[in-house]
Amino acid sequence: MPLPIVAIVGRPNVGKSTLFNRLVGKRLALVDDMPGVTRDRREGDATLLGLEFRIVDTAGFEDEDPDTLPGRMRAQSEAAVGDADVALFLIDARAGVMPLDQSIARWLRQSDTPVIPIANKAEGKAGESGIIDAYSLGLGDPIPFSAEHGEGLVDLFEALRPYLEREDEDGPEEDDEILLEGDEPDGPLKLAIVGRPNAGKSTLINRMLGEDRLITGPEAGITRDSIAVEWMWKDRPVRLIDTAGLRRKAKVEDKLEKLSAADTQRSIDFAEVVVLLLDATRGLEAQDLRIAGQVLEEGRALIIAINKWDVAENPPSLFQGVRGALDEGLAQVKGLPVLTVSAETGRGIDQLIEASFKIRDEWSKRISTGQLNRWFEKAIEANPPPAPGGKRIKLRYLTQARTRPPSFILFGTRVDQLPESYRRYLINGIRRDLGFAGVPVRMTLRAPKNPFGT
Known about the structure:
alpha/beta; Rossmann fold; GMP Synthetase, Chain A, domain 3; 12 helices; 17 strands; 33% helix
């Protein structure tokens, strides 16, 4: 059976050839900052997380007379899209949607070929507005992507999969169920253990593994660099990441400790779920709240685990004190899971891992636009937005832009005057009613750029 075909289309210099090279795994297409380098269609065999397909790189789409060279290049691009099973339409997120992008989108909407919009060059804050603008193309939710850095490949996989996975006459192929690392229920759970020095992080991981895999001792700061260990918990793969203890920055003077702290930060970035380990003999300290805030700022799912519970004094009072301090000190995320464990005895470890898998599912969940807006209509009916200066703020609709962490875009008029308290009201409602309890939720406010919008 021939491979399905994917065509890449877009105006000049939006990164089509860079994406082509990324998917074929080789520098087959020339890449340069000068627009118009690609002229003919270039094809190659591509693989993306188990999906195999034929990828076609096309020339930059320009609105020129058909008899000119740019016009003939455009004809080649149109033919490539016509032959494809699905087309990837790239825009430059840093430049935003240009008039030529709108022209291409109008043409693609008339085509019989399914289209997946991609906001390329979306790394960093410079591409955020362009990602939002891409919704105006009328081709569905754009995928934030970076062909240069390989960001967004999992989202691209999920978008391509319905169009590219084929079934034999006798039924689905044996490898029809492809598991994404860290993104499917059976994928490895990337679990980082963080905390202050001597909280018992390495001891806890050793207890999980059932062996002295990591060096432990009474001295603080034994662990200097992050150590990743593969582990199976009830036939489910887990990648445990032990990290160096994090002290308050003002106390970190040693260069090696600074490097260790930076390495721990990278581990937090890499993880899906982060367990902040507290010492029950010391309770919750200001540095613990700073670490928790850092994890949430990075958008990671967070669990609080109180270690050394077997030697804790007045456990009920300690637990309630930690819970109260978390709710007060981390008001941006209510309902963080708080568990008690003992690295020495193994108490509470199964409950900790179960909670980690559960919160990863919540962190990775996507709510359909229909379900989301049915909830949204009820939320604003129950508590309408204020009218500062007597002028009404009109909230139009809500959409989930991405997962991991769940991020939403709220569209409306005069949203720049929407009080932060109302934004928190919506976020807290999303957590409470839609199953995102204890997960960092992000919400961006956006006014429509459509000149005909009101």
